[in-house]
Amino acid sequence: MDSIEAANAGQLVCPKCGSTSFYVVGTIGFRRPFDSASGAFGTYDLLHGEETPLRAECAVCFSDVTTLFARDPATKIAPLELAHTA
Ligand SMILES: [Zn+2]
């Protein structure tokens, strides 16, 4: 997985099929009320400011393109997380 021409025009291209469509997959933070007296949980409140993109895959051929994305800071995929997926 090391064709790197994609960095070229700041545009990411799938090294396998040439697609420019991708899925970024990650987690999102949440806040959920909990009442210890009744043991009841309330409804989830998604914290949209707290996304953690973990990996990226091609939307066409589903290749893992996480390493490709991690080279581009704009994708916000942290190289740290990369160690766990490779
Ligand atoms: Zn592809």
Fold and architecture overview:
With 86 residues, the chain is of the alpha+beta class. Helices cover 14% and strands 33% of the residues. Strand 2 and strand 3 (40-41) form a beta hairpin. Residues 1-9 have low confidence and may be disordered. The chain binds zinc ion. The site of zinc ion has 8 residues, from loops. Zinc ion binds at residues 14, 16-17, 19, 58, 60-61, 63.
Total beta strands: 4
Q: What spatial form do the alpha-carbon principal axes imply?
A: elongated
Give average pLDDT, whole number.
81
What is the helix fraction of residues, given as a range?
A: 10-25%
Q: Tally the helices: what do you get? A: 2
Distance from first to last alpha carbon: 11 Å
Please report which band the strand proportion falls in: under 5%, 5-15%, 15-25%, 25-35%, 35-45% or over 45%: 25-35%
Oligomer: single chain
Spans of at least 5 consecutive residues whose pLDDT stays below 50 are 1-9
